[in-house]
Amino acid sequence: xxxxxxxxxxxxxxxxxxxxxxxxxxxxxxxxxxxxxxxxxxxxxxxxxxxxxxxxxxxxxxxxxxxxxxxxxxxxxxxxxxxxxxxxxxxxxxxxxxxxxxxxxxxxxxxxxxxxxxxxxxxxx
Length: 125
Prior knowledge:
Elements: E1 13-19, E2 24-32, H1 37-48, E3 54-64, H2 66-79, E4 83-86, H3 92-100, E5 108-109, H4 112-117
Parallel strand pairs: 2-3, 3-4, 4-5
Antiparallel strand pairs: 1-2
């Protein structure tokens, strides 16, 4: 069971902004849940604000609840083809995308490099 962070616990998630030659990148490390969903949304909107292609890298994300999914769906609705996801090949984050059938809704790739270089078409996985 997932337990919420206590006040003195270290942050359970980090959002790190980066840039490749092809796209802006938001690396997500740790757990995304209700406690940090607004910070996640702010980080995505910061990337999307310049109007160029951006990748949300979930390969370092170890857990995501429906709050994180809501942030991604909202961002996708607002930014559409400019937004791409790098989703790990296995694990709990991949599983939540499979259970909700959201992989088919996003341009998703197994690596940041593939996502950044792509033409934005969803992968065949």
